[in-house]
Write a structure and sequence with these properties.
The protein has about 325 residues and is of the alpha/beta class. It has eleven helices and eight strands.
Amino acid sequence: MTVASPTPPIGTNEVFLTEGGIETEIMYRHGFELPEFSMLPLLDNPKAVAAIRSVLSQHLDVAAEFGLSFMLTGLDYRASPDWGAKLGYSPAGLADATIAAIDLLRDIAKNYENQIPRLLIGGILGPRGDAYSLNREITEASSEDYHAVQLETLKRAKVDFTCAMTFNNIAESVGAARAAATAGMPFSISLTLDGTSKLKSGPSLAEAITEIDAKTGNEAPDFYMINCSHPLEYEPALEAGDWTKRLRGVRPNASKMDKLALCKLGHIEDGDPVELGAQLLSLSDRYPQLDIFGGCCGTGHNHLREIAKVLTARQL
């Protein structure tokens, strides 16, 4: 039986922020290498942990400043079995590192207990393969088996919610949703779009959400989001239809540049935070059910502040 999500139902007018692109901040603003783009190895480095605390505290400061709630994740994107093995973790060691990552989030959050209306701690399922590759070999059944491992660890860690991030195909999304339902975990899926405004595997956003819901039925995700895509990539995908009611949030990239080009830059590209805030305000005006806003690659506290500023100004 799935546990009811602590995220309130749509329509309560409670706005949530998330963290921005913590990996790109830690890499390019603080100078730490991320093996396999994973934050987990940094947990053994006191200087890196101090940097993580600083970055996430800056993000939480924005929520406290504007009186917004917060969904805090960001450290376990590569905590699934294949990535753990590449990083040199045994299954038990990977589980311990995942729980340590969640414990660190909780410790950071303690400083904001009376400053943020609702502060939820979550875990992230990253895709089994590279988010920018096709990953055609994964099936619904293999995805369910694969992601069940991390979900069981996150259940042990007693997270408030789980979210699949940067998923780009239907089969993996369906399997992860079924695994989350079996584990009884609140679960959402955040899809990523490429320069064609479609999933890398080919379907449109409308087709993907409609098919995932149809195949999962009572095991369907609580809601959907979009992440690791700039507004220029996801705006053309927002076709009219009832499926848009299943969208609840966006975590855009800061830059208009192609994702693969961004990966080769060797430095952070933070775009225009003011413009990004205006773009998310426009999106929110057109889709009032959206109530979760954050960032992905290149975004930081400056972007979150511009987003929070325009959203709260509208509420006055």
